[in-house]
Amino acid sequence: MITDVRGVRVGHWTDPVARTGCTVTLLPAGTVASGEVRGGAPATREWDLLSPERRVMRVDAVVLSGGSAFGLAAADGVVRFCEERGMGHATAAGPVPIVVAASLFDLMVGDGSVRPGPDDGYAAGAAATDGLFDMGAVGAGTGATVGMWRGVEGARPGGVGSASVVVGDLIVGALVAVNAYGSVLGPGEEAQPVVVPEPTPAFAGNTTIGLVATNATLDKAGCLWVAQGAHDGLARVLAPAHTTYDGDAMVAAATGDVVAAVDTVRSLGAWAVVEAVRAAVSN
Question: What angle do CA 261, 267, 270 make, to 5 degrees?
Fold first, then answer.
C-alpha cells in the first residue's frame, strides 16, 4: 500500500447510496511533488503549481474525488484541515496549505446531484491512517466503472486500489481511483488493436487519477519523470488508455528519506500503478 511510505496517510469519505466519495492522501512535511495529465478531459486543481519551474516545492495533500469538476470542492475542506494543523507553505501571513486535487466523472451513477464537498474532504482527512485502508468501491472509487468502451453491458465496477514495491530501503507506492473508459488487463494479458467507439452520451465521462509516493529524495523534475512513468503504468494495464474521454492525471511525490536513482523510482512506480489498478477492481 502507498502507506508503506513513512508519513503518508490515506482516508476516505464514502456515500454508498449516492455512489460517490473522495479519498485524501496527507503527505509529510517537506514532500516534493510534480504531476502530469495525459487524458483529454481532466478536472484538476492547483496543477500548474506542480510544474518544475514553479517556485513552491512542497505539497501537503492530494485529493481524489468523484463528482467531476464539482468534486474539486472537496479540496477546500482539506485545506481547512491542514490549516488547523499548521501545515502549509510558509508565508508572512502564516502557512498556506498546498492541496492538489483531481476528480473523476461518476455523475451518471447513483445520484449525480450529490457530490463531495468541503465537509466531506475534511472528513476524509480526519479519517486518514498510516496503516491499512479499504480498497474497491470506496472513497473516490465508489461510483467508478471500467470498460465502458465495450458498452454498458461490457462495463464493470472500478474503484480505488493501492500497491507498493520495496527494494532495500527504497519504497515506492501507488494509489489510484480507476474509472477508465478502457478495460483492465489481467496478468499475462496484452492490449490488442481495437476500434474505439464513440461513447454514448450517457457514458461520455471517465478518468483514472492517482498518486505515486516514494521515500526517495527527488527534486520536482525527478518527480515529473516519476509521474510520467505512472502514466506508462496506466498504459500497460488499461486498454485503451488515455483516451479523449478520460481525464487521466497522476501526481508523484517524494518524501526525501532515501537516495535513489530517478529511473529506478520511475520503473518501480510504473509497476506499482499496474498492481494498484488491478487491486482497485479485485476488491
Answer: 140
